[in-house]
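Feature request, filed as a ticket because there's no other form

It would be nice if the structure record came with a short human-readable summary line next to the C-alpha cells. Right now we just get the raw output. Example of a typical job, pasted below so the devs can see what we mean:
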Amino acid sequence: MNSKSSKNCTASSIHRIAVFISPHGYGHAARVSAILSALHKIIPNLYVHIFTSVPSNFFRDSVTAPFHYQTQLVDVGFVQDSSLAVNLDKTIDALDAFYPVDPALVHTLAAQIAQIHCELVICDIAPIGILVANELGIPSVLVENFTWDWLYEAYAADKDRLVTHIEYLRNLFARATHHIQTSPVCNDFDTAITTAPVSRRVRSDRSTVRGNLSVSASQRIVLITMGGIPENYPFVSELNSQNDTVFIIPGGSRKVMVRNNLILLPFHSEFYHPDLVNASDAIIGKVGYSTLAEVYHAGVGFGYVTRADFRESPVLVAYIRKHIPGIAIREGEFRNGTWISRLPELLAKPPGRTTKSNGAVEAAGHIAKILR
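Raw output as currently delivered:
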C-alpha cells in the first residue's frame, strides 16, 4: 500500500472518494488521474482511495490529491500478446474466472469503503465499483469513452462464450448513478454528460524538458509510445540514420539509456509522459485514448498506428483526422520501419490548436456538484 498524506485537513472535513480503475494499459489510469487532479483544485480537502492493479507509482506521478492505494484486481479488459495483438481465448478465460463478480469480494470492498466513510465511487471502466457503491447506497460515477460490453460485441460472432459476459457487463454499467463520457465517444448515451478529451496537464514547459533531456533547440524530438504494454521495436537501429532527430522511447529499456540519437526510458522514469509529448515535434504511437488526448492538447503531429481488429480504433481515427495533424501508419509499416521515410511529411504538418478546453476540468466540475 502506498499513499500521499493529506495536509491541513481534519478527519471530519475531508471529502473521501473511492476510485476503481481498469488496468488495461494506462489510458484509464491517465484519464482518472487527470480528473482527480482537476477535482482536487475544486475541492482542496479531497482524499482518494484508489483500487486497481495499475502500478502505484503511476498515481504518485499523476495525481495531485492525497490518496491511498490498494492493489486490487478490479477488471479484466483484454489479455494482450503485445500492444497491438489481443489474445481472445485468454481474455475469455480471464472473464470466466472473474465474472460474475464474487459477492464476497463486493461485500469486503464495500466494508472497507464504509469504514473510511467514502461518499462517492468513480469507475473507469471497472464495473465492480458500481456494485460496491450500490451495496453501500452511495452514488457511483461511470467515466468512459467505451464500455467493455460494447467492445466485446465486435468479437461475439466468432466467440459465443462472450455473449453471457456482454449481457452481464451491460447490466452492470447501466446501474451507475451518474454517467460521464469523454470525447471521442464510441457509443453515445443520451443520459450521459459528454466532455472534451481528458488529458493530464503539462507540468514543465517545453524548453525545460528538452534541457533536462540534453536536446538542443535545433534538434527535433520524435516520441515513440505504444502505451503501457511492453513492445518490441525491430526498427531501432534504423533510427540512427536520422541525425537531426532525437527519438525517445518510453518502455524501451529498464533504465535510462542514451545511444547516439536514441533516448530509451523505462515505463516509469523521472520524465513525466505529458511533458515528453509537449516537448516533442511529433508522436509515433498506437491509437489509444490517453495518447490521443495528450497529443490533441499538445497540438503536435501524430503518426498513429491503427489496429484493424479493435472496435474503438475507427472512432479514434475519425477524431484524429478531424482534429489532429497526422498520418496513418499500418501495423506492418510500423514494425518494419518504413514509416521512417514518412517523417518529413509528418513533421511538415502545421501544429494543431493548443488552446482547448480539457475535459478533466469539465468532468471534475460535474463530480464536485455531486459531492456538494
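Something like this underneath would help us a lot:
The domain at 2-196+359-371 is CATH 3.40.50.2000 (Rossmann fold).
Confidence is low (pLDDT under 50) at residues 5-11.
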